[in-house]
Amino acid sequence: MADLPYATCPYNKTHRILVLRMPQHVLKCQKSYMGPPLKTCKYNAAHRVLDMERHLTECREFKNFMDVENYWRSFECRKPKTSYDE
């Protein structure tokens, strides 16, 4: 288990949780949280942050999403015209 990745709980910085258990932990820990409201990342629901704009500059899931979107957009531009398009 020493090689499994750990992350810090966004609601309680003393909690170190296995990344694969973080979604369940966040839901449980959110119930007893008394600080400022945290926003949920659209690309990974386990990400809870105060400043979403700053978070998106660092979020790996957001970057992966944008790479995939750009990949498919590049195909849209390259489609040959068909007789229906004219």
TrEMBL record:
Every CHHC U11-48K-type domain range: 6-33
The molecular function GO annotations come to: zinc ion binding
Question: What Pfam family is a match, any one?
Answer: zf-U11-48K
Q: Does the keyword Chloroplast apply?
A: no
Which keywords does UniProt give here?
A: Metal-binding, Zinc, Zinc-finger
GO BP annotations of the record are: copper ion homeostasis
User: Which SUPFAM superfamilies does this entry report, sorted A to Z?
Assistant: beta-beta-alpha zinc fingers
Q: Does the keyword Cell cycle apply?
A: no
Entry protein name: CHHC U11-48K-type domain-containing protein
* Organism whose genome encodes this protein: Drosophila willistoni (Fruit fly)
